Amino acid sequence: MITILARELVLLSRWRRKDHHPREPQHDRYDWSGQTIQGAIPGLSHLIRQVYEICNDDMIALVLPHLVTTEIESMRKTLFTLQEFSVPLIAGVVVAMLAANWDADLYHGLTQTPLTQMWAFLTHGGSAHHGHAEGWGHYLTLHFLANDIFMALFFGIAAKEITEACLPNGALNPPRKAVNPLFGTIGGVVGPIGVFLSLNALFGMSAWRNGWGIPTATDIALAWLVARLLFGKGHPAVSFLLLLAVADDAIGLGIIAVGYPDPAHPTEWGNLIWMLPGMAIAYSLRVRQVQSWVPYLTLGGAFCWGGLYSAHLHPALALVFVVPFLPPPNRDEGLYESVDFEELECSTTHADRHCSPLEQFEHDTKTFVDFGLFFFAFANAGVALSEITGLTWILLSSLLIGKTVGIFGFSWIATRLGFPLPTGMSFRHLFVTGIIAGLGLTVALFVSNQAFTTPSLQGAAKMGAVFSIGSALFAFIAFDWLGLREGDTLLSLLLSRIQSGLRRPTEKPTPALTGSADV
């Protein structure tokens, strides 16, 4: 509605400048730049004309920017909310599951058919994906683009969080204040591996043993969302969980790189030498104080991606070796720090809002990555329910039990060694935090592709990753059972958390509109 109003005011302003009298009867059409535009809503056009007749051009010049700004703010707020609640990722999982169980051939065709053959696939009843594209066209499938190229940006942002955590005021600096969360991180990796290997030895099969690395990582975005809903903004348990999630994702990156080489193509370690020019370029750009992140990633990242790919290691990790060279800010302002809607983008016009290349990289790419996770989830989460096996439940148990017991146990040991929990965080909070860390959706889906080559095993493992979303439900139950909701009902507490997350942090007064009426 605001868009139509703004457009009509512009057209009427153009029409007036063609020496038409403002009150002269005219057809409901306005000639603008040689085009004839018909009012889409006659009633609205009539109202706009009445408003226009009592306003002069100076008033319209004041009103129009305000209308456009309001529309842009509304769109930005909507996008920010979708990102904050991980809607694209969850929607991708749901759509993939529905598609795979409704028409498996169509789903696999959409994800595995090269883009060069996609039109033929869609117009010939789903048989085109059995063919082979020539050259690089063979690799241009949604699955390849999502897993090998797009996920490089995802892991690049994870590397950015780890880099900033090492800065002054960061979660890993000074090291002493990070000891307890890092103990919890070790438990959050060792615990799931131990539970997986134990359950697999008792109830599983030797072919499932390679899935030990799947339950080791935590989905940062979903875990942060659930922690914010339960504990509230600013609670130390939220920062504790974010540090833990970032650290065990760093371990997960190492597991992917070393623990899961391609069995069909043995690792060519000599080809990793191509990564050295990429890191040298990134270092050279930093020494020359290049303030744009683009050449770091396009030049240095390209060499690292090619080196990993030619070595038969996963190229999605390419930016992990480049992002640490991006010039950082002087200090870390905090993981997933909330900002005002007016400050979602870095501004170089204000000295106090100047962003470093490391920050600018996240600000410029995070929206693309957050919404691109829809396609990653769609390309990886499409599993038929018939593929659920014992492997699914072993992986789910490893995430739920292994994470909770491992994090709680190792952090308890750290407190006994003299490294306490953060101020304001109790063991009850720690227990709920361990349950939330069992959310392993994104990275678990990714590792499932590397751990197994058999489609049936991949499907069963991915179902375990998808079902780990249930950790959120168990966290809600534990939060209520342990008496952490402080008098409110759980539903009212969650609603208040959601409302506070959607509310603008600061309300700035709207400047008064001034001008004389042309009556």
* Poorly predicted segments: 15-41, 338-345, 347-353, 504-519
Residues in β-strands, percent: under 5%
- How many DSSP-defined strands? 2
Mean pLDDT: 78
Oligomer: single chain
**Structural classification:** mainly alpha
The string of secondary-structure elements, in order, is: HEEHHHHHHHHHHHHHHHHHH
SS field, number of helical segments: 19
Distance between the termini: 26 Å
Principal-axes shape call: globular
The Cα radius of gyration reads 27 Å
Walk me through this protein's architecture:
With 519 residues, this protein is mainly alpha-helical. The chain is 60% helix and 2% strand. It contains 19 helices and 2 strands. A two-stranded antiparallel sheet has the order 1-2. It starts with a helix and ends in a 17-residue tail after the last helix.
